[in-house]
Amino acid sequence: MSQRKFSIITINYNNKEGLRKTIESVVGQSFRDFEYIIIDGGSTDGSIEVRKEDAGKVDYWVSEPDKGIYHAMNKGVLQAHGEYLNFMNSGDEFYNNGVLQEVAPSLDSDIVVGKIVHGKEVWGFQNNNHNALDDALNQLMDLIRGTVLHQASFFRKELFDENRYDESYKIVSDWKFYIQTLIFNNATFRNIRSIVCRFVPGGVSETDAGTRDMERKRVYKELFPDRMMKDYIRLEKVESPLLELIPELNKTAGLHQMAYKLVCALLWVHGKIKRVRVK
Length: 279
Prior knowledge:
Strands 1, 2, 3, 4, 5, 6, 7, 8, 9 and 10 form a ten-stranded mixed beta sheet that branches. The chain has helices spanning about 15-25, 45-55, 70-80, 100-105, 135-145, 160, 175-185, 205, 210-225, 225-235, 240-250, 255-270, and strands at about 5-10, 35-40, 60-65, 85, 95, 110-120, 120-125, 155, 190-200, 275-279. About 40% of the residues lie in helices and about 20% in strands. Helix 1 (about 15-25) packs parallel to helix 2 (about 45-55) and helix 5 packs across helix 12.
């Protein structure tokens, strides 16, 4: 199969009405240079019949038991031929039929992220060109506490050659993927003004905060030196992180070189992006 501009991947399990809504928003896109992939986890609620309603507009689909959300997403990656991948999972939907048409000219980075409608609010990232180091450190804390807008992200397919979603996590593997890709692999990032999707609140990451927080701690321990994480935990409690960090910056000669470089990289990334509410 020749390469398409986009691969849109939808995973689903026993959510036939959500799946119907998602399919309609994908197949209705005015920009047609995409393939559509549906990975179903062996649904028994009629989801397969919903999929068959638009069978001619779905390029690949499978319905079989899987090992969870990230296993299903990785299965979608393996079937994808597009230049950029988007995961529009069951229940979520593109904001309107012109989203892909609007986004396509902006695809000049490894990860391109737009905005989402979350309930009654619009969430997104914006350039923060006026900030100082203090503001950059606040943004660093935002990544430690939050994540990038997954449904509004478009990933260059080659990013998944080095990393797939870690299937040992149930909730935060996408967050781990962003950190590995943006920080450790030096992927390029661009945020855009386009509203990409309508996001359904109440997912597992919101309803199972205990598991989410436990898994985040696992990621911290796996990826970052203990010294760095102790500093982050301390800085989260400080109203002005810059004031507390200045003494630590004077001690950088004693830090492991890799840890210091990671701090610099994180500060640079978070000097460029920040999660904000748009009224």
